[in-house]
Fold each of these.
Amino acid sequence: MVPPPRRSNIAYRSAPQKLVESIRRAQNIWLTTHRQADGDGLACQSAMFSALGSLGKSAKILNFENPARKYRFLFEDAAPRIFDADLNPDPPDLIIVFDTNDPRLVTPLAEWAAERGVPLAMLDHHQALSAPVAGFDPELSWIDIQAASTGEVTLALIDALGIQLTPKIATALYASLAFDTQLFRFVRGSARSHLMAARLLPLVEDPARVQESLFANLTPSKLHFMAEALAALRIEHEGQLAVVILRRSLFDRTGAEASDSGDVVDLALNVESVRIALLLREEKEGIWKISLRSKRNVSVSEIAEAMGGGGHRHAAGASVRGQASEIEARLRPLLIEELRKANLEHG
Ligand SMILES: [Mn+2]
């Protein structure tokens, strides 16, 4: 039997008028992304920095921590600065926030901007929060949950602004795409990511370098970290739930970066039977970062929201105070219930 054709989803919703006009009017624009910035948000910052430069705007990249080493290739022209409210910089005309629609993930910049009347434009592809959060302006923001990366939304905005793609812009957007789709594995059932790649690739000078920087960046210490982290991994609930708890001491001992733990949870989800992977990572004494990944019809976004965080259907997280065992005990019934619902749906 021939399966029905799948939607190709290649049509972009048009850019919000208010967003395009605000960028055209603004002279000084800051570009930021969520805390624990990843390859998507950082690449969008890099692309927009170049794009605004070609419009003659003055742009600044401001983040909350230095980018991980593997992302440094994105910032050969403009090193990101760390936002510091105490430095009292002149407020910009507009702040564009990439890869989140939650102003709480850009604190204290969101509060700083609100006090000075600086609007926040949020470009994102995560599910919008179910409850409105102060600082989020829906008319000035562009959330497209069909996009597999915020880079797709950023490219559509660059097009709407009439900006010509350059090798720099194309390379950054290609990096966003390669990163968030994990080399075209997670394309949200749409042809868009591949079509976008086909458009960008002729302008990307060294696509292999993008791939190597983002993915072929293992070090011996990272491998030792992975070995210990995987040894601590438990697979439970008839193989459907993977749990790993990573203490600060492991990072100190192996010299791994916080962002390295993402690979552990991704690997756990690659176990055939696993439907949810839970990672608890000790950020500092008594503060744990919850990372949840799921696949197929299992959603983890509500669980993350219930823990005070957010995210999307298959990847979500939260930051929680307490002991690892007690946080795991709070999460467990929510995870089991979600698995039960998903199993029922499957019949
Ligand atoms: Mn993203």
Amino acid sequence: MNNSPAQALPTSTDTPWQSLATRVLEGEQLTADEALQILAAPDLEVLDLLQAAFRVRHHYFGRSVQLYFLMNAKSGLCPEDCGYCSQSKDSSAEISKYNILRRDELMAGAQAAAERKAKTYCIVISARGPSEREMAAVEEIVPEIKKQFDLDVCACLGLLTPEQADRLAACGVNRVNHNLNTGEEFYREVCTTHTYQDRVDTLHAVRDAGMELCSGGIVGMGESPRDVVDMAIQLRDLKVESIPVNFLNPIEGTPLSGQKDLTPNYCLKVLAMFRLVNPEREIRIAGGRELHLRSLQALGLYAANSIFVGDYLTTQGQLPEADYNMINDLGFEVTQSVEVASSKSCDAQQQKQDG
Ligand code: SF4
């Protein structure tokens, strides 16, 4: 039994975090120093911080949760050297490696997304940027997906030229994902084969082509809290619509496999910081949710309003039923009910990419 005197808990009203939330709801932007204070908050204040974040989340999104479904449409074989990535040439992780999937496989993924109540089907390839063959495959499949399913399509194809971005917009892609991954200062520590500016340039090309932006990052790569804040503010400046927040899964065989210093409470502070810095944007708890938030993962949805349902690119997520139960138990609800155009069943377990 612990007989030490109880520490004073923050009161539920008029705490510094509640004041921050009030200012954010009044239209003020957080400064970098205020965002840093959130990441440095004592663990005892995490519930108060989440309550403040939830006021903002609720103002913009109510109790809704958006679901996304990932399809790893081309795996491994990537010439880039991103240190966190199991698909890089520098990774010896044991993953499936294959070229871009066939048309029927991509359509089966869309079917799985619809069956899992996802709003958005994310087609992801491992590449510095798309080859002509990969561009043509996406241009062919996207109109078919949009015709058969009530799904938005997000394409994650690597670096894009303005011409490639225009072609994606023309074939019906709603949104492009291209993560900044971390702050500009730290970027060169995790990748040397392309630059942070290359990534920013791709986001500008996507915006100029008229598509929405999905861009976020990975926390837990050895960066400082300041790097995380810099990324959150850069995403705010770019007016990114959707922000996936990944927590590094240090996959054996990747250069960053030794990075294991995240705690569930720190992950919750990160999510609260992203919500308060980007109040009206979709914040998604992405890869590493189950691994790092563990028994606290439901709490993350008080700050975030979106998750992936199903598996990640090369690692498994929890079963969709567990996600639906978590959302129901919170009293939240999945926003999109999707008309499934075909009755053909798809076993998404076939899409699990871990070898
Ligand atoms: S460019 Fe993408 S697929 Fe290639 S190593 Fe980097 S993160 Fe992985």
